[in-house]
Amino acid sequence: MTEGNMERHAYLIIAHDRFDQLRKLVELLDDPRNDIFIHVDAKADFSPEKSGIACRHSGLTFLKNRVRVHWGGPSIMRVEINLLKEATSRGRYGYYHLLSGMDLPIKSQDQVHEFFRENAGYEFIDFWRMDEDTLSRVRWYTPFPESERNFIGHAVNKTCRNIQKACGSGINGDVDFKCGSQWFSITDEMARYVISQEEWLWKTFGHTIICDEIFLATLAAASPLRDRLYRNPDNPPEVKASRIRLIDWTRGESIRHPWTFRAGDFEMLMNAPQFWARKFDEKVDSEIIDRVCGAVRNAKDGGTEA
Question: Domain of 46?
Fold first, then answer.
């Protein structure tokens, strides 16, 4: 990629497993206007050379410095920062899109690039309303945030937080926290701003839990680029709805887990205005993945799925 070629996009993908599904995602993103950067959880038994994941048109980079990601821990923030560092080190992209390995595009790359060309300069971060439960994730010091799902670690963390609550002594009292979706589409300027604030991010979030829905929203809302946010963080929607990402929170198994799309959702997905959808799981329903992949490939070729 040449310096300053802002027509190109960088796709940043966080993957943990489901590598055949990841291969299908990469194939749909493989386009001369894109480069793809993938982080695979260090806990996974994965070899890029043996995975069969390759690109014909896009540059493809697997991050070598793999992080062990633990639910609720700031390790996920480290992964996102590392992806941004790797991508920005290659040059300047018009947009950086963060996806999960369990996402799929539901529109062609022509449509994606056209939209971001027409809306160049906006930062696409979806903001949600902050509630007390969410705020508590970052107001109390957590000694072992990467062990929140470990029985002993959780017990120690909870005891520590309860002591702080009883004493009325927490952390980050001077930070105006915002909450939003982990998944983003941001400009080169915002990407580099995030990287420049890495020390502050670790000071603020290094001993908090489930900060993936807070750290970027907080940073962006207080940044010199806040006027470029596509949606005003001070007046977020009541419903978790995105202009560019389709995530169904209404049918999910819990408030923190969105619906996994099935074959019966195909028409809805194809008629949705968004560009990407999550989530899909080949172990839950592989048919919907194959149908979406077929439809998006046909759209690229100018055809339609029967």
Answer: 9-133+173-238
277 domain residue, yes or no: no
DSSP-based three-state secondary structure for 186: strand
Q: How many domains are there within the chain?
A: 1
34 membership: H or E segment, kind and range: strand 34-40
**Mean pLDDT of each 10-residue bin along the chain, 306 residues long:** 68 96 97 97 93 95 96 96 97 97 96 94 92 94 94 95 92 95 96 98 97 96 94 60 85 77 96 95 96 91 50
CATH number at 89 reads 3.90.550
Judge whether 113 lies within some domain: yes
Distance CA 305, CA 292 (A): 9
The secondary element (H helix, E strand) that includes residue 161 is helix 151-167
This prediction's pTM: 0.92
Residue 164 resides in a domain: no
Decide if 276 is inside a domain: no
Distance CA 165, CA 144 (A): 17
